Amino acid sequence: MDRYGILAELHKIIKPRGYLEIGVQTGASLQLAKDCMDAVGVDPDMSNLSYDVSFATLVEVPSDEFFEAEPSFIGVDGGSFLDLVFIDGLHHAEQVWKDFWNATTLGHPGTVYVFDDVLPRNQGEASRTMCPGDWTGDVWKAAVHLQNNVRPQSLVVDTFPTGVMIMLGTPPGCLLDFSLKDELLPQWLATDEVPEAILTRSAALQPDEALAEVLAWQAWMGSSND
Fold first, then answer.
1. How far lies 164's CA from each of 38, 53, 98, 142, 157, in Å?
2. Which domain holds residue 26?
3. pTM of the full predicted structure?
4. Which residues contact 12 (CB under 8 A, 6 or more apart)?
5. Cα dist from 140 to 5, 192, 198, 205, whole Å
6. CATH number of the domain residue 174 falls in
7. 37 by DSSP, 3-state: which?
8. Which pLDDT tens digit goes with each residue over 144-168?
9. Over the stretch 183-224, which tens digit does the pLDDT of each residue have?
10. N or C, which terminus of the chain has less Cβ within 10 Å?
């Protein structure tokens, strides 16, 4: 299963009312959000669009500028309806870290965050300088840091070609530790050597395993809110 396949399955499970995508590229992933009440795609360069995403709001600016404008996914009841976020923008760990924390200010405890390109297959793909073919940059550093310090329950999934991580929302009554927000991965930015466990995907879940966990989590969240 590739990144689009697992995103499509997540849309079926979550049925998001609001969807935010950082990094639109061709629009292949954004077009999966056509049934959402509100879908927003953010990318500083929309020249590569080749899918029909006319249903979505396209914001052609860097993600930092988008968040600085204080966008809102607030419904008439005063609560956020942003249910799914896909982060696939600049492939530098510190930017992924910033995009995540900025996105959490728009979400709610049940918002699901998906990070692309967390499993490089070799050291070249993980370079901070773009390489030919599939380029992950050092997104893996942000993923490891988020798992270790923010949400240990995050699911790293062996999707083609370069893996995704699914961060399930926080349980009712539990908030993210915003004191971590300004820690820009100091211990990970110091190294460019990708751990062998990431290159071999030895700890990654298969897509069907991850989706089963998402279904179980969603059922639990539903019962917790009853």
1. 23, 23, 18, 12, 5
2. 3-225
3. 0.94
4. none
5. 21, 10, 8, 15
6. 3.40.50.150
7. coil
8. 988 887 877 799 999 999 999 999 9
9. 766 766 777 789 999 999 999 999 999 999 999 998 888 766
10. C
Closest by CA to 196, choosing from 91, 119, 143, 125, is 119
- Total domains in the fold of the chain: 1
Count CB-CB contacts under 10 A for residue 132.
Answer: 6
Q: Check: CB of residue 214 under 8 Å from CB of residue 155.
A: yes
Nearest to 57 by CA among 79, 37, 74: 37
Tokens found for residue 171: 């349980």
Q: How far is it, in rounded angstroms, from Cα 43 to Cα 120?
A: 23
Longest dimension (CA), the chain: 50
